[in-house]
Design brief:
There is one protein chain. It is built from 17 helices and 22 strands. With 552 residues, the chain is of the alpha/beta class. It has four domains: 119 residues, NAD(P)-binding Rossmann-like Domain (Rossmann fold, 3-Layer(aba) Sandwich), CATH 3.40.50; 178 residues, NAD(P)-binding Rossmann-like Domain (Rossmann fold), CATH 3.40.50.720; 131 residues, 60s Ribosomal Protein L30, Chain: A (2-Layer Sandwich), CATH 3.30.1330; 76 residues, ACT domain (Alpha-Beta Plaits), CATH 3.30.70. The strands form four sheets. It has a seven-stranded parallel sheet, with helices on both faces. Strands 14-13-15-16-17-18 form a six-stranded mixed sheet, covered by helices on one side. A five-stranded parallel sheet has the order 2-1-3-4-5. It starts with 27 loop residues before the first strand and ends with a strand. 42% of the residues are buried.
Length: 552
């Protein structure tokens, strides 16, 4: 029997009736981009109605006009899911992105409407890694330029003198899923591989067969350099004019990760001067890249963001997103969601405020932690210890890692942490203190151990109640400043005057201290951003030991 049909019961009007009491409507999915036809077949095989319009994503007005009739939307990169379009999506329950990037989806707007946004974070990994290796080889032997010359009837054999990659040192910036595959392939080509990744443990580096180094050392030693890190504020222009000067003369640079990791103007100058022998780029600051200063240089190889462009990769992500969306629409199962953890529908109402608390506590600890993390400890005390702590731990780990790794979500976070050799410990116990429920997040790094605790009150709003042993009671705000200082008279007045003189309004001000005259902490919510020059003034105040802007 069709599981969507409720069996007929006794019908006093017609005991032989075969009409069901209720038929649950068949879910409807719209595919608005060019996904593999196999994805549509999966939906149909699972009993889901499919409307396949592969060019609709380019017509945002028509998409907004019809989206209200669908439960699911399957897309690639062409469809732009805006807040305005989502206003029309009265029935939409899930958006599935066949690929890793979800920057074409307004995630906050989707979350506000209760729409799950899923991606397929690992379907393109091998393909992208292979493209990086391909570009490295093409760069080493000047393949594109030699091909053009030969097709033009020239036989310029002496012009295209290449270099071997055998025995050369490959520097990998970002040794996560894709970076580790590149390292494996390069080792197979008999290259020496060194890697910079703050989250890479010595044990994981040893297992991969790479040498873990600091960034400055990687710049000095690499013959070839490849980037495999997300674009964040910490990684933007990680290769700039200063770092290019540190590099070995004649280095070759490959970027198949994100535009913006390399200062293109600085690279142009380094290529012209000969400091950099060549570059191979698949990604650019502005895309589509119809114009770019790098295009005019003979020692540059460029491709139009082809990292994921293989038949196998597109088939993999299409099949994966169709399976994920079907599971959610038919069974309520959530996997690879970027805006919600994997939990059941029954658990959601009770868990929701604690998920927010866990992620914000993790974000607090993550924004204050620089460098490698060895261990994450999650402690659940009281009523929260009886809940789905796995979902809470995923939320906390995502909060911790996201400041460094932009693409991390609550589903992929534990996998990403494991890949980087980060130990995750989870403990539960009965309530022992003043709170019915208490979550404590502890981050262990080689330099220090930091912990923060929080709870949820009856109003459902998460609060910080303890920072490294100092009690306080503070709500989270979008823009905050965390300060450690000595408990001496005058600090609050000087701090408030500094912000007031800069025209920055203080929304809330929470303080705590170990003992009179001892170490103290302050957590201040402000309206708007904190300019760098004002932050410098705050850090220069007497008694201030540390000042860090935070975003939640």
């Amino acid at each position: 029997m069709d599981p969507r049909v409720k069996p007929a019961g006794d019908n006093p009007k017609n005991s032989n009736s075969t009409i069901p009491d209720r038929i649950i409507p068949m879910p409807k999915v719209l595919i608005s981009d060019a996904l593999s036809p196999a994805a549509g077949q999966i939906f149909k095989d699972r009993g889901i109605e499919v409307d396949f319009q592969p060019n609709l994503g380019k017509d945002k007005d028509k998409l907004a006009e019809i989206i209200g009739g669908f439960d699911g939307l399957a897309i690639r990169s062409a469809t732009k899911v805006s807040a305005k379009m989502l206003e029309k999506a009265a029935n939409l329950k899930v958006i599935g992105r066949a690929g890793i990037g979800v920057d074409n989806v307004d995630i906050p707007a989707a979350t506000a409407k209760g729409i799950i946004v899923m991606n397929t974070p690992f379907g393109n990994s091998i393909t992208t890694a292979e493209h990086a290796i391909t570009l490295m080889l093409a760069l080493a032997r000047q393949i594109p330029e030699a091909d053009t010359s030969t097709r033009a009837g020239k036989w310029e054999k002496n012009k295209f003198m290449g270099v071997e990659i055998f025995g050369k040192t490959l520097g990998v910036i970002g040794c996560g899923n894709i970076g580790s595959i590149v390292a494996d392939r390069a080792i197979g080509l008999k290259m020496k591989v060194i890697a910079y990744d703050p989250f890479l443990s010595p044990e994981r580096a040893m297992a991969l067969g790479v040498e873990k180094v600091e960034l400055d050392e990687l710049f000095k030693r690499a013959d070839f350099l490849t980037l495999h890190t997300p674009l964040t504020e910490k990684t933007r222009n990680i290769i700039d004019a200063a770092s290019l000067k540190q590099m070995k003369k004649g280095v070759r640079i490959i970027n198949c990760a994100r535009g913006g990791l390399v200062d293109e103007a600085a690279l142009y100058d380094a290529l012209k001067s000969g400091q950099v022998a060549g570059a191979a780029f698949d990604v650019f600051v502005e895309e589509p890249a119809t114009q770019n200063p790098l295009f005019g240089l003979p020692n540059v190889v460029c491709t139009p963001h082809l990292g994921a462009a293989t038949t196998e990769a597109q088939e993999n992500v299409a099949l994966q997103v169709a399976e994920q969306m079907s599971d959610y629409l038919l069974r309520g199962a959530i996997s690879n969601a970027v805006n919600f953890p994997s939990i059941t529908a029954e658990e959601a109402p009770r868990l929701k405020p604690f998920i927010a608390l866990a992620e914000k506590l993790g974000s607090f600890a993550g924004q204050l932690t620089d460098g490698r993390i060895i261990k994450l400890q999650l402690s659940y005390e009281g009523a929260v210890a009886q809940m789905n702590t796995k979902a809470l731990t995923s939320a906390a780990v995502a909060g911790i890692l996201r400041p460094m790794l932009e693409d991390v979500n609550v589903v992929s976070a534990p996998i990403v942490a494991k890949e980087r050799g980060i130990v995750i410990e989870e403990t539960t116990r009965a309530a022992e203190g003043d709170y019915d429920s208490l979550i404590t997040v502890t981050v262990v790094s080689p330099e220090l151990t930091r912990f923060v605790s929080g709870t949820v009150y009856a109003d459902g709003r998460p609060r910080i109640v303890n920072i490294k042993g100092i009690r306080m009671d503070a709500e989270f705000g979008p823009s905050m400043i965390y300060i450690t200082n000595l408990d001496k008279p005058g600090f609050i007045g000087r701090f408030s005057s500094t912000l007031g003189d800069a025209g920055i309004n203080i929304a809330t001000f929470h303080v705590g201290r170990e003992a009179p005259g001892g170490n103290a902490v302050a957590l201040i919510e402000i309206d708007g951003e904190l300019p760098a020059e004002v932050l410098a003034q705050v850090r220069a105040l007497p008694q201030v030991q540390q000042a860090k802007p935070l975003k939640f």
